[in-house]
């Protein structure tokens, strides 16, 4: 696995601030040519560090309603269903799954219909409890800090410079060690054979 250098980190910071920033502007900032920046961004995408370029939409400008945080505690085994149902809702902007399996979303919904919206969006038979918190303000600030690290695609641990990278099924994956890579490849081959 190739380590990110300071130039890569700075390119990521600039893209996080404005993903439409021209490569020539980034090149001026980092002291490279625009084609060299383009190559580095292509390498970051190929390695999986950059997954996509997106837009941060201020939904308050597009839709009425009240910003809320909704925390859903699903029944055991129901986390994926709750997450998928909430993620598919137009009102939801961000979806988080906690280590405990709770699903937390930020959404903009009509204040008088929040509980009805939750009931219509998620199968409450698969939910132990849910809580709604009204928000007065929110902000989103993507950052690339010094603690940036890839997660192992097998176990989730941090991938260091001693980790391994492999292209499996046409996609690039990162692993913290050779045994995680072997387990991932074995499972992929088994699933591919069953398909």
UniProtKB/TrEMBL annotation:
It comes from the Archaea. Keywords: DNA-binding, Transcription, Transcription regulation. The keyword DNA-binding applies. Signal peptide: none annotated. The keyword Transcription applies. SUPFAM superfamilies: Winged helix' DNA-binding domain. Pfam families: HTH_AsnC-type (PF13404), TRASH_HVO_1752_C (PF24273). InterPro entries: ArsR-like_HTH (IPR011991), AsnC-type_HTH_dom (IPR000485), HTH-Siroheme_Decarb (IPR050684), HTH_ArsR_DNA-bd_dom (IPR001845), TRASH_dom (IPR011017), TRASH_HVO_1752 (IPR056526), Tscrpt_reg_AsnC-like (IPR019888), Tscrpt_reg_HTH_AsnC-type_CS (IPR019885). Residues 4-67 form the HTH asnC-type domain. SMART domains: HTH_ARSR (SM00418), HTH_ASNC (SM00344), TRASH (SM00746). One of its GO terms (molecular function) is DNA binding. PANTHER family: HTH-TYPE TRANSCRIPTIONAL REGULATOR LYSM, TRANSCRIPTIONAL REGULATOR, ASNC FAMILY. This is AsnC family transcriptional regulator. The lineage of its organism: Archaea, Methanobacteriati, Methanobacteriota, Stenosarchaea group, Halobacteria.
């Amino acid at each position: 696995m190739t380590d990110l250098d300071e130039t890569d980190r700075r390119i990521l910071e600039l893209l996080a601030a404005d993903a439409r920033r021209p490569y020539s502007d980034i090149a001026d900032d980092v002291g490279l040519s625009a084609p060299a920046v383009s190559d580095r961004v292509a390498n970051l995408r190929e390695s999986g560090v950059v997954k996509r370029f997106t837009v941060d939409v201020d939904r308050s400008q597009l839709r009425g309603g009240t910003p809320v945080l909704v925390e859903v505690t699903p029944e055991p085994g129901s986390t994926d269903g709750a997450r998928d149902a909430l993620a598919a809702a137009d009102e939801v902007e961000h979806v988080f799954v906690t280590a405990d399996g709770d699903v937390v979303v930020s959404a903009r919904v009509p204040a008088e219909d929040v509980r009805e919206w939750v009931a219509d969006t998620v199968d409450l038979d698969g939910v132990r409890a849910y809580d709604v918190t009204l928000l007065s303000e929110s902000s989103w600030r993507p950052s690339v800090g010094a603690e940036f690290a890839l997660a192992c695609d097998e176990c989730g641990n941090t991938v260091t410079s001693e980790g391994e990278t492999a292209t499996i099924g046409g996609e690039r994956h990162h692993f913290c060690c050779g045994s995680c890579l072997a387990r991932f490849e074995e499972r992929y081959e088994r699933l591919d054979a069953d398909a």
